[in-house]
Amino acid sequence: MKVRTAQRPAEAGERSAAFTLVEIMVAVMVFSMVIASIYATWALVMRATEVGKDATGQAQRQRVVLRTIGDALMGIESFQASQQYYWFKLDNGEAPMLSFVARLPETFPRSGKFVGAANGKDASSRRVTFSLAAGADGEKDLVLRQNPVLTDMDDDEKQFPLVLARNVKLFTVEWWGTNQMNQPEWSTEWDDTQTNSIPQMLRVHLVLGANTVNGKSAPDFAATRIYTVPSQMMPAFVQRGVGGGPGGMGGPGFQVGGRNIR
How is the chain split into domains, by residue range? Predict the structure, then answer.
């Protein structure tokens, strides 16, 4: 004879140890929201990191460009009797450029190519030309080309210039206070027939575009720097050593760098 044991009904307030379907669905939704929030925060952090790196890179490129231009301007040279070699030129048209002759330091980019023991080279005085050239994806690159004063630019410099900055949106050079009607103002127009001397000051404006590699981007980086040119053109009579004229034997002399030259 089988004895049946009566089961005790569940008392009020007691709960089953298992989760209901509704509870599981709510838990999954909450977990999904937490994961989505974490991913969104991580994506923002990574985005900010990439933009920060791009901005830092742009600032570094800007410093390199402006420092290179400044180093060249500190040693600028010009001789009135040899203008066919020592001419100064800037252009802000469709092909912006800045070109002049300077005595460059050993730390200047590519100095090893022009100065050193190899082949007895000693071309510290070189023509430097800063200009915009076509880059990748239709961008413009700011490049530097050099050549010794008395020789033409070689094919290597023409085809493979030194790239100072990529994706340059704007490169302009203004000059102050040369011989154009003695107007005390900044000008972007350079007239070789009227202003054949060295400007007293130059103002360079540079805008670097965002880095577009792998879809990354950063705001455009703009910088402006004013350079005071420490040199003046050497007059022809001084270069040739002709006496009797201004600054020659018996002449009143003139000043270079605050010193009286006779």
Answer: 51-244
